[in-house]
Design brief:
Number of helices: 18
Strand content: 5-15%
Shape: globular
Distance between the termini: 39 Å
Structural class: alpha+beta
């Protein structure tokens, strides 16, 4: 085993990724090779961080016990924030260049502060490490909260004065020498698992699934442009694209008649304004789809010269990608072309139903909006008008019900019922009315209907609450929508480290 280093296993992983049957790849080779590589990588990372120092470093501070304990915790913290990248957006919303320089500088800052203070300035240290040394790289507010939470959990008085677990099954070491710390890592660091990062084991499933999907996508794109059928008859790329265009053109409805819709409405409430905006955005998208497909069809018939834009559209349709010109006018989505088009038709149907009478649906499909923020803002605007409250003093209250979409028969008098949300990193327990740990292999459990209403900020609950970010897709980051305050019977830090968020699309 000594000869198997991560770099070798990583090359081995890529070789295996391109061989064998898909099911064998997904179920056997990929998990085994990745697990071995990850185990070695985690152990190496923790030990390598400690290798940046020596016995003289451990003995250079007058407060030796405190300095050693915090230095070891810093090494573990650096390993966690660096290796957490592999879990993608659930790990960090964005990619950050954390490096060894952040760790070494933090250790010397630690030395200076311990030498200058009679007591350990825990709060000052957490601020320096989380907001300046490591936080200087971080550009996303939710990632900053994650970094801050790690430090709050790993750097507290119990690290020196009591028993503190750096992660599940890995207590902070006693006062040891340099060799002793290395032996402690080798003997006590648990096997590689998401628990080391505060994540649920489902995060590993999601990570491996993403790798597999990327591999299959690459294999699919490497296939010949013109594929032959088993009967011997060939199906050309142009034939495939032409079939897709005809299918889409037949199913795609005409756009909304905005003049007629606006003429039917006298009192333009905030909700109706949102409906108009959504219809206009849908018209823009549908018109672009029809225009580009019509031009490409004429090009395939030889009636128009094929341009670079047409070639790009043809390639996207053939490889089941959403064309760039459509994506530019659409909503964020991670779906392939066929799934994306099916979702589009559902969105159009929902808009048609709403625009028939402009009465708010009994339960609103929040994911169906181009701009979900506009609908949530409209809830506050509607309540502010009714009660004559200042809009800048208001916020949203989120009450997760025990009902599903089918159980809702009428819209509420104030606010709105919303559905179609999924939770990643945890689940909602309807029995206790709180966030709970995920069940294994349930990566995106669906949320019940949520009742959202506007209240003044002074009435907002702050105890036993997890501030849960809402995103449009699993990409998170720039797809942020809102923050829903959800009830929690456990410390919010658990869900923060677990990367818990609500998603509108999975």
């Amino acid at each position: 085993m000594e000869k198997f280093r991560p770099s070798f296993l990583w090359r081995m992983y890529h070789t295996v990724s391109l061989a064998g049957h898909h099911q064998l790849l997904r179920r056997v080779y990929l998990p085994k090779v990745t697990a071995i590589a990850s185990r070695l990588k985690t152990t190496d990372t923790a030990a390598r961080n400690l290798d940046n120092f020596n016995q003289e470093t451990l003995e250079m501070c007058g407060k030796e016990a405190e300095f050693k304990a915090i230095l070891f915790s810093l090494c573990y913290f650096h390993a966690v924030v660096a290796e957490r990248m592999k879990f993608g957006p659930q790990g960090w919303n964005r990619v950050y260049p954390f490096n060894v320089g952040d760790l070494t500088i933090s250790v010397y800052v630690l030395y200076n502060y311990l030498e200058a203070n009679n007591r350990v300035p825990w709060e000052d240290l957490r601020y320096l490490f989380g907001e300046i040394m490591y936080g200087g790289h971080i550009t996303d507010d939710w990632d900053r909260r994650l970094c801050r939470t790690y430090l709050e959990e790993l750097m507290q008085p119990e690290l020196v004065d009591g028993d503190l677990n750096l992660c599940t099954g890995f207590p902070a070491p006693p006062n040891l020498d340099y060799i002793g710390y290395h032996n402690y890592i080798d003997d006590n660091l648990p096997p590689e698992s998401p628990y080391l990062y505060g994540l649920h084991p489902n995060a590993e499933i999601g990570f491996l699934t993403t790798l597999s999907e990327q591999c299959f996508k690459t294999i699919f794109e490497l296939q010949p442009r013109d594929s032959g059928a088993s009967s011997g008859a060939s199906v050309s790329r142009e034939d495939v694209v032409r079939t897709i265009i005809e299918d889409f053109s037949d199913k795609l409805p005409e756009g909304f008649n905005m003049a007629e819709l606006m003429a039917r409405v006298e009192d333009r409430t905030p909700f109706i304004i949102v409906a108009f905006q959504e219809c206009e955005r849908m018209n823009t998208l549908v018109q672009e789809m029809r225009r580009t497909m019509r031009e490409l069809m004429l090009g395939l018939k030889g009636e128009l010269t094929i341009t670079s834009d047409m070639e790009a559209l043809e390639e996207s349709l053939f490889f089941d990608h959403v064309p760039a010109s459509w994506t530019k006018r659409a909503y964020p989505s991670m779906c392939g072309l066929q799934a994306w088009f099916a979702d589009l038709l559902i969105r159009i149907k929902e808009l048609e139903s709403w625009s028939n009478d402009f009465n708010l649906p009994s339960s609103v499909w929040l994911a169906g909006f181009f701009n979900p923020q506009s609908f949530l803002t409209a809830i506050m605007q509607q309540t502010a008008r009714k009660n004559e409250w200042p809009l800048d003093k208001m916020c949203l209250s989120c009450d997760v019900s025990k009902k599903w979409k089918e159980d809702i028969t009428a819209a509420p008098r104030e606010g709105a019922y919303v559905n179609g949300l999924f939770m990643e990193g945890a689940r909602w327990d309807m029995q206790i009315g709180s966030i709970a740990s995920s069940r294994l292999k349930e990566l995106f459990p669906q949320m019940p209907v949520i009742f959202i209403k506007a209240i003044t900020q002074d009435k907002q609950e702050t105890k036993n609450i997890y501030e849960c970010p809402v995103y449009k897709t699993r990409d998170r980051g720039p797809t942020y929508v809102w923050t829903f305050n959800l009830k929690s019977k456990e410390k919010p830090a658990k869900w923060t480290l677990g990367g818990v968020a609500l998603l509108l699309q999975v």
